[in-house]
Specification:
The complex is a heterodimer. By secondary structure, chain A is mainly alpha-helical. Chain A is built from ten helices and two strands; from the N terminus they run ααββαααααααα. Helix content of chain A is 67%, strand content 6%. A two-stranded antiparallel sheet of chain A has the order 1-2. Chain B starts with a helix and ends in a 7-residue tail after the last helix. The chains are: A mainly alpha, B mainly alpha.
Chain lengths: 234, 162
Amino acid sequence: MKLLVAFLAERVHPDVITLISSFGSNRGLEPFSPRISIIAVRVLRNAHQISYRHDDGGTICRQSARQIKSINNRGEMPVFEWLETTALAIWVGESLWGYPIVLGTHAIGLAIVVGIFVMLDLCMLRVIRGVSFNAFLSLYRLAWIGLLLNVISGSALFTSQATTFIESAPFLIKISAVFAGVIVGIFIQRRLKLRAADWDNADTHIESSATALAALSLVCWIGAIFAGRLIAYL
Amino acid sequence: MMESLVQAIEGGAINTWVLSTYWLWPLLEIIHFIGLSLLLGSMLIVDLRLAGYLRQIDIMSMHRLLPWAAIGFAMNMVSGFLFFFGDPGRYSINIGFRIKMVLVLIAGLNVLVFALKINPLIGNWEPHGDTPGLAKAIAWISLSTWTGVLLLGRLIPYIGTG
């Protein structure tokens, strides 16, 4: 870390250096895991923008977007850079509680959405038997609330590091998988409304088009978790 | 006690394996997240029914969901142990991790109360009816402890150490 700061000191604006060296201490945050604690430190010198990536999927610290703006006062900014300067992004990226609150919400939403959809998929695939499909019509409401939580918290997380995320392949795969999972979920919900009562009869065959949807849904959600976890590593 | 545990782990075979296998940590995270989805997804449905909601579900069919909670828990226990063995020094002094483990313990005791006091009686209940007060209490304790475990787990890297 000290080497890094020394390296930067020769090349970057002094205000930026002060800012980086205060990152760990003022937020009480330290790289946690044993492996590469800071995976990438990108110094886009022209923009004087510095982003840190921590191995736990998130931002640890990022240069104050306000400062980027003041340093790089050259008129219009591209949209993703602009996003990083919004009040929301600054709250998420820099306030003491912003990031933990948003990340915690995202975890709860994940458990609700993926938890309910995976259980439904397993029921439709008849891996789990005997749980009422009718109940899943009620659970769908909860799943959509979970999704709403995650769209909101996910958008907030995105703004805090928009320029990094938009170039991250695992992130783009994750978003695609979530999007596909939601579409498949809507199709399953429509099917469930028509067929839940029939399927609850244990002897009724669940048509293969419905089990195919369930399998697809499972792939989407597991895929989203897979890609989501890899954002921090690739 | 903690210090000696940490010393015993550090430099050992598992510790070395976790630290030196670059793909292992991300893989463990993926397993941990899939496990939590299985655990919390199945517990959410079981607890809601046990709390008296979702009465379309036959109370006996909870037994079909519980194995999935066990599978999720087992996945997370194995991956969690490897996390701990990979970085015992950090985890052992992390307050978030410590509270999380206490909550897991409470959740475990809660399951024990369920198994001893509730499970033997379920067969006598109205399959689609309301549930007794003790069952509701167990359900809400379960929901809140697992939510706490989830939150603290996710925030371990951001909560102060010690």
